[in-house]
Amino acid sequence: MENMRQLEGTDHLPRRRKPYPTREERLASAEAEIAHLTQLNRQRQALIDRTERVLQERKSALEKSTAALERAKCKRNRLQAAIARGEVTPATPEELRARRQAALAKARAARQAEQEKYRALLAALQAQGKSLDDVLGSVRAVANSPDGPK
């Protein structure tokens, strides 16, 4: 009961009002608010710039991906059309090995033909009594002459 009487006794006390701030306090408060909002705006602008950069990166990645998708679709369509015409038959591993061996044999034959030409040239030079160094020297002399090679 005593607690109730204590509470009843406080009802008649007037509330104290917060004093109105002085001009200096109001000015300091306004400057603090300006500093806070300036910093907040800078942070938000930095976030917007970062977001725009990420957005541009994602847009360029999407464009590249879309272009790659179109190329893949065109390739698929070309292959389907060739298969429909009967032009493309998948090669077996044995066929691929045979093609590879044929290409290597062709390259080997071309290399041997070049070596035969080189041997024939050396034989012709030896028959005339000239060496390869003599021929190279005369070619260099012609290339370095003021008239230049013809």
Largest sheet properties: none
Strand content: under 5%
Give the proportion of residues in helices.
over 70%
Report the mean per-residue pLDDT as an integer: 87
Q: How many extended strands?
A: 0
Model regions low in confidence, pLDDT < 50 over at least 5 residues = none
What is the terminal separation in angstroms? 128 Å
Instruction: Output the number of helix runs.
Output: 4
Structure description:
- With 150 residues, the protein is an all-alpha fold.
- It has two domains: 31-90; 98-143.
- The protein is 80% helix and 0% strand.
- The protein has helices at 2-9, 23-85, 93-128, 132-144.
- The radius of gyration is 46 Å and the shape is elongated.
Protein topology:
Layout (H helix, E strand, L loop, with lengths): L1 H8 L13 H63 L7 H36 L3 H13 L6
Key descriptive features of the protein:
elongated; 150 residues; 2 domains; mainly alpha; 80% helix
